[in-house]
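Predict the 3D structure for this chain.
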Amino acid sequence: MKSRISVTAVLILALLFSFAAIQVATAQEPITVGMSTSPTGPPAIAATTEVLEAGIRDSLGIANDEGGINGKKLRHVNQDDQYKPDVGVKVFEDIMAKYKPLAFFGSGTPVALATAPLIKDRYKILYTSTSFSAKLAFSGIPSMFLVGPTYGDQFAVALKYIAQLNKAAKVAFFYSKGPFGEDPLAYGRVMCQRLKLDLVGEVAGDIRGGDHTAQIEELKSKNPDYVIMQGWVGASNATLIKQCRDLGLKSQFVLTLWGADKSAVEALGPDGPEFLAVSPYAYWWMDDVPMIKTIKAYTAKHYPDVTYRPLNYLVAFTAGKIFVECLRKADSAGQLNEEGVTKALQSLSEFNTGGLTPPLTIRSNRFPVARVLKSNPTKGILEPVSDWITFY
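Done. Predicted structure below.
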């Protein structure tokens, strides 16, 4: 009888230990960050895929090296959304069903806008993307945010800077058709009125590039002092600037964030025209920035053949740092769930990104701070020409 009791007790204890081991293993499963990029999207968008994923991957990797989320490791999963809203929604739902992430990085404005209703009604997780659309910032969805200022904020920074240089300046907007290019136009008009700048024209082009002779001739007829360009990425801005110069348009060009990249400077060449750009970020060549030093050291260790990380990498990396900070705050508060990460996001104040940006305080689901930079064709880089400008 005693033998039977002993055997039974041993079996029960073994089952209890096994159950406890399963619980520990489950508790230590990695925290997933979802992601969708567009390797089969428009060429200029597709070209950003690899570095966007590297930015998220490396920010999580550095966080893991520092202990993860209070000991819990982080990972990311990524799928192709083709830069198509319907595909992006399916990808988002698929990743949510399979991995149940608490944070997600999306590919751009069209996909983010299509995903927004799901974030609002069903999946109240942290969500950001490469988009800086005001429609996302002011959507009323507290867990959805921009990794910087809206495109409208960026127009405002550019226009304030222009007004400081020339209060009587004539300004034109050159933008790509669609949500990406059109997003800041209304606010840009308002800011021109406030600053008493003369908005002489608004001209739309194709995000895919190509021949823009008709559009450039229209711009020439308005004779603007400054042309603010919105809705193209990286070196595709340089292609348009070259077309403008070849057709005799001599205006000063001002690019918003996705033109504020070294690739645009290099594409114009050492003898090419200078341009202005708006950005909230530090850059790879700014060696006095602590987080740039950290990224360079991490890159040298894990990717010895990589000698440069562009703007889109830094945007995704910064998004990853915000994810990590919110996850840590939520976990420390005992609320590692949708409600907890949303509370953490909305409480961000003077968050230190290691100098990648100025200290970040969330306002209307974005971080409304940026400065103006100027291209240096000889060095092939961009250099700050203004102080930080904040919008509330």
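The longest strand covers residues 198-205.
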